[in-house]
Each structure stands twice: as C-alpha cells, then as structure tokens.
C-alpha cells in the first residue's frame, strides 16, 4: 500500500521531485567542478588499488575483484575514465533536475555511488545512494513533474513500433 502510494500519489511525486532536484544538483555540481577543474582520476585509482577496502578481522581486501578491475582495466584506460566520470556525473545531474530519463539517471547515479564506495570513498556517497534509491523506487512517479511526463508517451509509442506491438503490449501482424 505504501509502495503504491509512493509510485502513484501526486503528493509523493512532489516529495520525490524535491529529492530528485537536490540529488541532481549534487551530481551536476560535482560533474561541473570536474569538467572545469582539470579532473584526473589517476591519483584516485592508484590510491584505491594501493589501499583497498580491508576487512579488519582478516586483513584481506573486501572487494578483490573490484581492485583487480581498477588495476587492470580502469588504470590503463584512465584517459577514458577522465572523460566518462565528469560527463556522466554532469548528465546524471541534468537528467535528475529536468526529470528527463529520470530512472536511467537515478540508476547510473546509484552505480557511480557503489563504484566509489567499493573504492573506499565514503564522503556523500551513502547519502546520495539512499536518496537515489528513493527516487528509483518511485518509478514513473519520479518524473511526473518533469520532461518524462511528455517523453514517456513518445518512448512508449516508439518502443511499440520497434517491437511491432500495439499500445497494450500485444504483438501486431506485420
């Protein structure tokens, strides 16, 4: 019952919109500072590989696969990472603030939060992750007061054409 209200109620949509704009501003601001401030992820990645998240009881890395990924995939491709992180953060912020492709923006924001947490950076990541989950769980109601209100019917119509389906999800003859 609570989830139904969170996903459909107009007052819940107002609350979600406020949360969405706050989280979006945080992402937009972080991305903008990285885009204009000469961002280089090399130091962060080297630090995350050199000092991974350690289990205090066993003194072993908590996420050895992620450390391996950082060392063997991310670090050799740091120039790509230096573009993807700031542009991604900025676009996540724009999507959340404008309410355009809101669920995709919330999903990718949560993914970045998880990646930063796996690397050992706490900062605001748990807070933004929790708020991002609140937005994501709201489903279509998260974009009710945004571009998604107008974009959703167009996407549904286009998706139906691609899948050769009518507006109700049933296959049509070609």
UniProtKB/TrEMBL annotation:
It is found in: Membrane. The chain crosses the membrane at residues 90-115, 127-147. It holds the Pfam family DoxX. It is a multi-pass membrane protein. Its main location: membrane. The keyword Membrane applies. Keywords: Membrane, Transmembrane, Transmembrane helix. InterPro entries: DoxX. This is DoxX family protein. The lineage of its organism: Bacteria, Bacillati, Bacillota, Bacilli, Bacillales.
